[in-house]
Amino acid sequence: MIENIYDDTSFDAARSLKNVNLNTSSVIQFLKRKTAALIFISKPLLR
Fold this sequence. Notes:
The chain is mainly alpha-helical. It contains 1 helix and no strands.
């Protein structure tokens, strides 16, 4: 168990980095959808 401590911590760090990447990509996709919806809604108002 003790000799695996470094492997566990590096695995946790990699997993948290992966989670951060997933969160940022989902946030970016969410913002893209929001802006697309806003543009779609405001187009008839701009005419």
